[in-house]
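Sequence in, structure out.
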Amino acid sequence: MKEYQLTDYIAAKKSLVSTLNKIEKAIVSLEEKEAQGKKLTAQITLSNERVKALKLSILLIDREIDRMNEVND
């Protein structure tokens, strides 16, 4: 398995957080359009599942960052 550096984890987290923010904004927009009568339930559900996956990924990256910082202290 490839060894990643702390900077790799930080960069990955930054990218995931950016994507998370964009999807959360998209969900708001989708929900507004759905309230106007458009059928977007599937897209909203998929986006919510992506949010869960991204939050889990960020949590795991945070744990690894913490672990790496403890080893370096």
